[in-house]
Structures are given as C-alpha cells and as structure tokens.
Specification:
Structural class: alpha+beta
Helix content: 40-55%
Oligomer: single chain
Order of helices and strands: HEEEEHEEEEEEH
CATH topology of the largest domain: Ferric Hydroxamate Uptake Protein, Chain A, domain 1
Distance between the termini: 105 Å
Strand content: 15-25%
Largest sheet: 7 strands, mixed
C-alpha cells in the first residue's frame, strides 16, 4: 500500500510540475507575442512620427521665409490678380516656365509650367517681390539675373519698363493689377522694335 501511495504522490507531483511548466510556457508565449506586436507597432509608428515632424519643420521654415504682413502686404488670399509679363534681355525672353522659377513665393508667382502670367495672391505686393523670389532684382538702373549677370544702362543699351504699352520710369514697386501687361526690356531696340515686343505681349493669353 505504501508503495502505491508513494507512486501516486510522485505522479501527482509530476503532474503539478508539468502544469506549472505549461502555465509558464503559455505566459512566456503570451508576453513574447505581446513584445513582437509592440515591436511591429513601433516599426510602423516611429517612422510615421518622424515623417510628420519633418513635414512640420519644413513647413515652418518655408513659412518663415515668406514676407509677413509687417512689410505692408496683405495676408495670402487677400487678393487674386493676374497679369501677363515678359522680361527681354538682349532680345531674348527669360523663360520663367522652367521649374526653378515656379511658385517661389506664396504672395506672387508663376505656376503650372506657365511663365508669362503673374498670379498675385495678396494685396500690396509689387513686381519686385516676384523678381526677388526667383533670385533676380532691379537696382540702380540695372537688371540683375539669377545667373549673376547685370544688365545696366550704357550708351547703346537701355533698361526700360512698360505697363499696358506705356513706358514708365520704374517698375520695381508697381503692384500688378488684373489684366495688366508688363514688359521689362534691356537692349538696343529702336521704337519700331519696342512696339513689336509690346504687340507680342498683348497677344499672350492670361492664364487664370
């Protein structure tokens, strides 16, 4: 009888130990599965968070580079005006349809692969703001290209400006209005040649 009882006790102890081992295995498996899920989640969520932060930082930088209303301009969306324009340097038009000139300012720009329609999206924004946004400028009777070249008045060549066919002494601070046609010319064109360039500008469609 004693031997049978001892055998039964050993079996009960073995079963108990097996139950503990199975329970611990299941617990380990449960926590291991949880760890695997958390790792998969982190592999997904961490890059997403980094992407959102990167976009926010880039947006903040771009916004900080835009002129603010303290410069006398209205907020973006306070106007929506369109004007045709040409910049002729030594009888060659600047091709503003190229990608490096597209939408460089939220205030005034060219867009959608077009290079002859100015879009002004805020009140009070002058033509010079567009030129500066594409690394060009007008200073001291010189037109400055984005390649570093300067086109200044000489005995033979002049820098001239026209708005709606009428010559004006300055264009830098002119605020383009709806349906305006603006021509900047540097060269030795005579009156007849200037008239033809103005006529070409008149034929250019304004894209809205």
């Amino acid at each position: 009888m004693a031997d049978k009882k001892a055998t039964a006790d050993k079996k009960a102890t073995a079963d108990k130990n097996k139950h503990k081992h199975d329970t611990k295995y299941r617990e380990d498996s449960y926590f291991a599965a949880g760890r695997r899920k958390r790792k998969r989640y982190m592999r997904i969520i961490v890059p997403a968070i980094i992407g959102v932060v990167a976009v926010a930082v880039i947006s903040a930088i771009v916004f900080s580079l835009q002129p603010s209303s303290t410069e006398g301009y209205g907020p973006v969306g306070s106007a929506h005006e369109h004007a045709a324009f040409l910049v002729m340097l030594d009888r060659v038009p600047v091709n503003f349809s190229q990608s490096q000139y597209q939408v460089k300012s939220n205030l005034i720009h060219v867009e959608n692969g077009d290079g002859t329609t100015l879009h002004r999206h805020a009140t009070g924004v002058p033509f010079i703001e567009f030129l500066k946004s594409v690394d060009m400028d007008i200073q001291d009777e010189c037109f400055m290209g984005d390649d570093g070249r300067e086109y200044c008045d000489t005995a033979d060549k002049k820098l001239r400006y026209f708005v709606n066919g009428n010559q004006t002494s300055s264009i830098a601070n002119y605020v383009p209005k709806e349906n305006d046609r603006i021509l900047v010319v540097y060269g030795d064109e005579n009156e007849g040649e200037l008239k033809r360039e103005i006529d070409v500008l008149r034929q250019i469609p304004i894209r809205r």
